Amino acid sequence: MTDATDHRAAKNGEVCLGVISEVGFGLRDVGQPVLWFTVHTDENWASLQVFTVGEAVQIIKDYGVRDVRDLDGKPVWVRKDGPIMTFERAWKR
């Protein structure tokens, strides 16, 4: 039996709140500049998110940060589709 709040019991396409960590900006393994961070939705569920420069600029603007490292600890909305988690939008007050 799973708890009603368990992320694995969620329906596909559900949008939920996560926390950003492990933020970086650079080339990684894709040969072009990218923004990346990990999103944790609970203690046992996390996903690496990678963004193009254009997407990164929008995320930086949405959060109003001066340095991408300031994204660390920020809340974020993500969509869960089975085992796949994707960035949905910045969390705004």
Detailed description of the structure:
This protein is mainly beta. Helix content is 12%, strand content 46%. The protein has one domain (17-90). It has a 5-stranded antiparallel β-sheet with strand order 3-2-1-4-5. Strand 2 and strand 3 form a beta hairpin.
What characteristics describe this protein?
single chain, 93 residues, mainly beta, disordered N terminus
Strand content: over 45%
The whole-angstrom Rg is 14 Å
Q: In terms of structural class, how would the helical and strand content be classed? A: mainly beta
Give the low-confidence spans: 1-5
Shape descriptor: globular
Mean pLDDT: 88
The H-and-E topology, N to C, reads as EEEHEE
Describe the strand arrangement of the main beta sheet, using strand numbers. Answer: 3-2-1-4-5
The rounded distance between the terminal residues' Cα atoms is 35 Å
Estimate percent helicity. Answer: 10-25%
Largest beta sheet, briefly? 5 strands, antiparallel
| Overall structural domain count | 1
- Total of helices: 1
State the total count of DSSP E strands.
5
What's the structural blueprint in terms of helices and strands?
Elements: E1 14-26, E2 34-42, E3 45-51, H1 53-63, E4 75-81, E5 84-90
Antiparallel strand pairs: 1-2, 1-4, 2-3, 4-5
